[in-house]
Write a structure and sequence with these properties.
Largest sheet: 7 strands, antiparallel
Structural class: mainly beta
Strand content: 35-45%
Distance between the termini: 42 Å
Number of domains: 1
Helix content: 10-25%
Radius of gyration: 16 Å
Number of strands: 12
Strand order of the largest sheet: 3-2-6-9-10-5-4
CATH class: Mainly Beta
CATH architecture: Roll
CATH topology: Pnp Oxidase, Chain A
Order of helices and strands: HEEEEEHEHEEEEEE
Oligomer: single chain
Protein backbone atom coordinates (compact mmCIF):
# COMPACT_ATOMS: atom_id res chain seq x y z
CA UNK A 1 0.00 0.00 0.00
CA UNK A 2 1.27 3.49 -0.79
CA UNK A 3 1.78 5.82 2.19
CA UNK A 4 -1.09 8.14 3.10
CA UNK A 5 -0.51 11.70 1.88
CA UNK A 6 -0.65 14.08 4.90
CA UNK A 7 -2.54 16.76 2.94
CA UNK A 8 -5.18 14.25 1.78
CA UNK A 9 -5.52 12.87 5.33
CA UNK A 10 -6.00 16.38 6.75
CA UNK A 11 -8.63 17.13 4.13
CA UNK A 12 -10.53 13.89 4.80
CA UNK A 13 -10.38 14.44 8.58
CA UNK A 14 -11.79 17.92 7.99
CA UNK A 15 -15.01 16.33 6.69
CA UNK A 16 -15.76 15.33 10.31
CA UNK A 17 -17.67 18.06 12.12
CA UNK A 18 -16.35 18.99 15.56
CA UNK A 19 -17.08 21.45 18.29
CA UNK A 20 -14.64 24.25 19.04
CA UNK A 21 -12.96 24.66 22.42
CA UNK A 22 -10.36 26.75 24.16
CA UNK A 23 -8.06 24.57 26.26
CA UNK A 24 -6.45 26.42 29.17
CA UNK A 25 -4.00 25.83 32.02
CA UNK A 26 -1.38 27.62 34.11
CA UNK A 27 2.30 27.17 33.23
CA UNK A 28 5.04 26.51 35.80
CA UNK A 29 5.35 30.28 36.45
CA UNK A 30 1.60 30.60 37.03
CA UNK A 31 0.92 32.36 33.73
CA UNK A 32 -2.30 31.61 31.84
CA UNK A 33 -1.90 29.51 28.70
CA UNK A 34 -4.71 28.87 26.22
CA UNK A 35 -5.34 27.80 22.65
CA UNK A 36 -8.14 26.88 20.31
CA UNK A 37 -8.61 23.12 19.94
CA UNK A 38 -11.17 20.98 18.17
CA UNK A 39 -9.59 17.63 19.10
CA UNK A 40 -11.77 17.21 22.23
CA UNK A 41 -13.72 14.02 23.03
CA UNK A 42 -15.46 12.15 25.81
CA UNK A 43 -13.50 9.13 27.01
CA UNK A 44 -15.28 7.61 30.03
CA UNK A 45 -18.29 8.24 32.26
CA UNK A 46 -16.96 6.14 35.14
CA UNK A 47 -14.47 7.48 35.97
CA UNK A 48 -15.32 10.82 34.30
CA UNK A 49 -12.53 11.24 31.72
CA UNK A 50 -12.16 13.49 28.67
CA UNK A 51 -9.33 13.78 26.17
CA UNK A 52 -7.85 16.21 23.70
CA UNK A 53 -4.64 16.42 21.70
CA UNK A 54 -2.06 19.06 20.84
CA UNK A 55 0.70 19.13 18.20
CA UNK A 56 4.08 18.28 19.71
CA UNK A 57 5.51 21.33 17.90
CA UNK A 58 3.17 23.70 19.80
CA UNK A 59 4.97 26.07 22.18
CA UNK A 60 2.20 25.32 24.72
CA UNK A 61 2.95 21.58 25.03
CA UNK A 62 5.29 21.88 28.01
CA UNK A 63 2.81 24.05 29.92
CA UNK A 64 0.02 21.49 29.53
CA UNK A 65 2.34 18.56 30.29
CA UNK A 66 3.47 20.12 33.58
CA UNK A 67 0.11 21.58 34.64
CA UNK A 68 -1.81 19.77 37.37
CA UNK A 69 -5.14 20.94 35.89
CA UNK A 70 -6.62 22.14 32.64
CA UNK A 71 -10.01 23.40 31.48
CA UNK A 72 -11.85 22.73 28.24
CA UNK A 73 -14.14 25.66 27.39
CA UNK A 74 -16.72 24.63 24.76
CA UNK A 75 -17.48 27.72 22.68
CA UNK A 76 -20.84 29.05 21.53
CA UNK A 77 -21.75 30.55 18.17
CA UNK A 78 -21.23 34.01 19.68
CA UNK A 79 -17.63 33.23 20.66
CA UNK A 80 -16.13 32.76 17.20
CA UNK A 81 -13.98 35.86 17.74
CA UNK A 82 -12.39 34.28 20.81
CA UNK A 83 -11.77 31.09 18.86
CA UNK A 84 -9.88 33.05 16.21
CA UNK A 85 -8.01 35.04 18.87
CA UNK A 86 -6.79 31.91 20.67
CA UNK A 87 -5.73 30.37 17.35
CA UNK A 88 -3.53 33.37 16.52
CA UNK A 89 -0.23 34.63 17.94
CA UNK A 90 -1.65 37.66 19.79
CA UNK A 91 0.46 38.61 22.83
CA UNK A 92 -2.30 38.52 25.49
CA UNK A 93 -5.02 36.15 24.34
CA UNK A 94 -6.83 36.53 27.69
CA UNK A 95 -7.36 40.29 27.23
CA UNK A 96 -10.79 39.48 25.77
CA UNK A 97 -13.55 37.41 27.34
CA UNK A 98 -14.57 37.09 30.98
CA UNK A 99 -12.10 34.75 32.68
CA UNK A 100 -12.03 33.32 36.22
CA UNK A 101 -9.79 30.80 37.93
CA UNK A 102 -11.24 27.32 37.99
CA UNK A 103 -10.07 24.16 39.70
CA UNK A 104 -6.28 24.17 40.03
CA UNK A 105 -6.17 27.73 38.65
CA UNK A 106 -7.05 26.74 35.08
CA UNK A 107 -8.75 29.72 33.37
CA UNK A 108 -12.50 29.27 32.85
CA UNK A 109 -14.41 31.34 30.30
CA UNK A 110 -17.87 32.72 31.12
CA UNK A 111 -20.74 32.19 28.68
CA UNK A 112 -19.62 28.86 27.24
CA UNK A 113 -21.90 26.03 26.14
CA UNK A 114 -19.96 23.80 28.58
CA UNK A 115 -16.79 23.85 30.66
CA UNK A 116 -14.89 20.79 31.86
CA UNK A 117 -12.46 21.52 34.70
CA UNK A 118 -10.01 18.63 34.86
CA UNK A 119 -7.10 17.24 36.82
CA UNK A 120 -4.43 15.98 34.44
CA UNK A 121 -4.79 12.20 34.56
CA UNK A 122 -2.27 11.26 31.89
CA UNK A 123 -0.47 12.55 28.84
CA UNK A 124 1.21 10.52 26.14
CA UNK A 125 3.02 11.34 22.92
CA UNK A 126 1.45 9.56 19.96
CA UNK A 127 2.69 10.38 16.48
CA UNK A 128 3.06 14.13 16.04
CA UNK A 129 0.64 14.98 18.89
CA UNK A 130 0.45 14.73 22.66
CA UNK A 131 -2.77 13.20 23.97
CA UNK A 132 -4.04 14.72 27.23
CA UNK A 133 -6.51 12.81 29.40
CA UNK A 134 -8.25 14.70 32.17
CA UNK A 135 -10.38 13.56 35.07
CA UNK A 136 -13.39 15.89 35.22
CA UNK A 137 -13.59 17.47 38.68
CA UNK A 138 -16.19 20.15 37.92
CA UNK A 139 -18.42 20.95 34.96
CA UNK A 140 -20.80 23.66 33.87
CA UNK A 141 -23.25 23.68 30.99
CA UNK A 142 -25.69 26.09 29.41
CA UNK A 143 -28.32 25.56 26.75
CA UNK A 144 -26.57 27.70 24.15
CA UNK A 145 -25.87 26.88 20.49
CA UNK A 146 -22.32 25.54 20.13
CA UNK A 147 -19.78 26.74 17.60
CA UNK A 148 -18.91 23.99 15.12
CA UNK A 149 -16.02 23.48 12.70
CA UNK A 150 -16.01 21.45 9.49
CA UNK A 151 -14.08 21.55 6.24
CA UNK A 152 -11.76 24.29 7.51
CA UNK A 153 -14.62 26.69 8.32
CA UNK A 154 -16.82 27.67 11.26
CA UNK A 155 -20.51 26.79 10.98
CA UNK A 156 -23.72 27.35 12.89
CA UNK A 157 -25.63 24.35 14.15
CA UNK A 158 -29.04 24.30 12.47
CA UNK A 159 -32.23 22.49 13.47
CA UNK A 160 -33.32 19.29 11.72
CA UNK A 161 -36.37 19.79 9.56
Amino acid sequence: MPPIDAKALRSALGRFTTGVTIATCRDSAGLRVGLTANSFNALSLDPPLVLWSLRRASPAVSAFESASHFAINVLTEGQVGLSRRFASPVPDRFAEGQWADGVGGAPVLAGCAAVFECALHQHETLGDHVLFVGRVERLHEAVLPPLVFQGGHYHLLGEML
